[in-house]
């Protein structure tokens, strides 16, 4: 196995985002690309990432590989990639070998680990509401809600999308169909802002976000740039509004 990325910044950003949700993952390398599917320790959220082989300047894979990786260690190495650096990834026995080439060549070896638990696949659901919008507008709405509560409610109908948070204080952000792309029936669900604040860091890799949800059903948030996809699933909070 030998992979080469001439511009590893995107991979570095994505690994950094995922590392806030999970600490250990199975990194899958197949002939069509690289992917991660993982569930957070509380079994509340899931993350999926895929980067196709076409984005690598070199992608030599003789067989499918599943590599157990500590994300904190991988993140720290990828941060050493400077502007203009290239990255090579290979495997030697129980080591993941990372080479960074810029003015000099640096090599890092990370020990592969055994990941406990069953492998999961990203579920395929149909949603009553699909909202496509500017990523930064979504970021602002989630940050607004975080000021007043630890959870927020998503509400959508054919002409509007509302994010609302209520505690002792409240916040409400409303988007019309003139401002965002809405494909929706009437839907409402409540979600943890602790997790949403981790998810919105996906705005770093994509200027657009797709928000998919239904009544009291897990939501899915997709950030995509080109053929690269970073996707999150979050279970709803089933509780009475205060």
What is this entry, summarized?
The protein is of the alpha+beta class and 242 residues long. It folds into two domains: 2-111, Proliferating Cell Nuclear Antigen (Box), CATH 3.70.10; 129-234, Roll (DNA Polymerase III, Chain A, domain 2).
Entry keywords:
nine-stranded antiparallel beta sheet, DNA Polymerase III, Chain A, domain 2, alpha+beta, five-stranded antiparallel beta sheet, 15% helix, Proliferating Cell Nuclear Antigen, 2 domains, 4 helices, elongated, single chain, 242 residues
Structure overview:
It is a single chain. This protein has helices at 9-18, 71-78, 135-146, 193-199, and strands at 2-5, 24-30, 33-39, 45-52, 58-60, 65-70, 86-92, 95-101, 105-111, 129-134, 151-157, 160-166, 170-176, 181-184, 187-192, 208-213, 219-225, 228-234. The chain is of the alpha+beta class and 242 residues long. It has two domains: 2-111, Proliferating Cell Nuclear Antigen; 129-234, Roll (DNA Polymerase III, Chain A, domain 2), CATH 3.10.150.10. It has a nine-stranded antiparallel beta sheet with strand order 6-2-3-4-18-17-16-10-14. Strands 5-1-7-8-9 form a five-stranded antiparallel beta sheet, with helices on one face. Strand 16 (208-213) and strand 17 (219-225) form a beta hairpin. Helix 1 runs antiparallel to helix 2 and helix 3 packs antiparallel against helix 4. The longest helix is centred in the middle third of the chain and has 12 residues, at 135-146. The protein is elongated. The relative contact order is 0.17. The model has no long low-confidence stretch (mean pLDDT 95).
């Amino acid at each position: 196995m030998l992979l080469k990325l001439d511009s590893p910044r995107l991979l570095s950003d994505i690994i950094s985002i995922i590392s806030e949700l999970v600490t250990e993952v199975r990194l899958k390398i197949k002939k069509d690309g690289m992917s991660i599917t993982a569930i957070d320790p509380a079994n509340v959220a899931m993350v999926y990432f895929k980067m196709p082989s076409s984005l690598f300047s070199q992608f030599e894979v003789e067989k499918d590989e599943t590599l157990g990786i500590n994300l904190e260690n991988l993140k720290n190495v990828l941060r050493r990639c400077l502007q203009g650096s290239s990255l090579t990834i290979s495997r030697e026995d129980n080591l993941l070998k990372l080479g960074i080439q810029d003015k000099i060549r640096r090599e890092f070896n990370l020990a592969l680990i055994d990941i406990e638990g069953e492998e999961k696949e990203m579920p395929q659901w149909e949603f009553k509401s699909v909202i496509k919008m500017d990523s930064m507008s979504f970021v602002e709405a989630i940050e607004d809600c975080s000021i007043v509560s630890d959870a927020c409610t998503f509400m959508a109908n054919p002409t509007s999308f509302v994010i609302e948070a209520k505690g002792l204080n409240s916040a409400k952000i409303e988007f019309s169909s003139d401002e965002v792309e809405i494909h929706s029936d009437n839907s409402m669900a409540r979600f943890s802002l602790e997790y949403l604040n981790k998810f919105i860091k996906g705005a770093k890799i994509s200027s657009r976000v797709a928000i998919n949800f239904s009544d009291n059903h897990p939501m899915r948030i997709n950030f995509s740039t080109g053929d690269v996809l970073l996707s999150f699933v979050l279970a709803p909070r089933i509780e009475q509004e205060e």
